[in-house]
Amino acid sequence: MKLNLPNNFIWGTATAAHQVEGDNKNSDFWFLENFKNTTFAEPSGIACDQWNRYEEDIKIMVDHSIQSYRMSLEWAKIEPEEGIYSNEAIDHYRKVLECCRKNNLKTCVTYQHFTSPLWFTAKGGWEKSENVKHFLSYAEKVTNELGDLIDIVCTINEANLTACFAHSFQSYPENGMKAIMPFIKEAAEECGSTLENFGPFLFGHPFKIRDCMMEAHVKSVPIIKSILNNNQPVGVTLSIMDYQAAEGGEKVRDQAYAESVDCCLDQVTNDDFVGVQMYTRHTYGPDGIIKPKADDPNMLVMGYEYYPESLENVVRYVSSKIKTPIMITENGIGTDDDNQRIEYLTTALQGLQKCLDDGIDVRGYFCWSLLDNFEWLFGYKPRFGLVEVNRETLDRTAKESFKFFKDVIDQSS
User: Fold this and answer.
1) What is the pLDDT of residue 264?
2) Which pLDDT score, from 0 to 100, does residue 203 have?
3) What global pTM score does this model have?
4) Distance CA 328, CA 311 (A)
5) Which of 10, 80, 164, 303 has the fewest CB atoms within 10 Å, counting from its CB?
């Protein structure tokens, strides 16, 4: 499969620190995963132990022609206590970034990917605008310490995700999930907070979190860019699914786009790029979202529909709204059937080619994910990886889909 790409198009793959590194003990997610009566399927534990195996993972990327690695810095490891930074963690990430540089792998670094320090979440987390200052201090610190080794900056991962949840799950209440999950209240009290002042990302108020994260992004960009000295591009990543309307569902679909996507796109018109993260489509009727039936053969393990055509639709939608360059910072499929992954990638990339042929400014494509890893509430069951990770030995084995992806890169570069 050969694609006709613009010069300097970037091929990459992606992970998030909490999902692959392991032992993120000072984070809010670690605290919630290990709490009694948790709704997490299992704790993250050692994850894929990338903290110790990063050289092995970088080698397997290089061996498969990957040009850029989208990774994240773990805020909870870098600032385990408010205002106290870990030189050990910063030195570790410098070694990872230096290893990437040594292997000619561009670094695409996300500063915050879902997880936060527990102290931050106990203060209200992303539900309180007054907490934005903490992210700005952290962003300034890591840019000063590591910016010379960063090629692309993604400030925050999927800053709009909780707002998407409000329009994607019929059971998702307007004020978030924490009020209906008793363990959240108990967890808040155990860490010295209260339910009202505890702001874990996936469970909190969808629109407060959206607004707070976008405020943090907008305010952090000039701080980060003032420190970087090589004009490295800076942007934010957004979760943008393909919202479609069944008969009579146009108004509901348009409201979903307005409240979860458009209001964020409006704030990134001057960014160097917008990271688009796309997996499926959502179809809306007059009464809200229409979920595929559980026995639908197109239903995937994460509970959404197999529909790779959505990548083309979403890229066209974003380009119709803003002229900011687009980077596909996540796209992939959770499945045990690697042939299905190859089929998904084939269709998605063919759609991306059509967008490029029509002159849409897409700068790169990062496949999610490098490794089979910890998928948040779902634990280790969903498998998004181009590389299989044996849960007993943590040995890595490249899948046929990675070999397919390598061939695409080699033929298209």
Assistant:
1) 98
2) 93
3) 0.97
4) 9
5) 303
Q: What is the pLDDT of residue 180?
A: 86
Hey, what domains does the chain have and what are their CATH numbers?
10-412 (3.20.20.80)
Residue 163 near residue 152 (C-beta atoms within 8 A): no
Name the stretches of the chain with pLDDT < 50. none
Beta-sheet pairing, 387-389 with 396-398: antiparallel
Of 193, 94, 200, residue with least CA distance to 150: 94
Report whether 384 contacts 368 (CB < 8 A): yes
Q: What is the pLDDT of residue 199?
A: 93
pLDDT at 200: 93
| Residue that is written with structure tokens 């803003």 in the block | 322
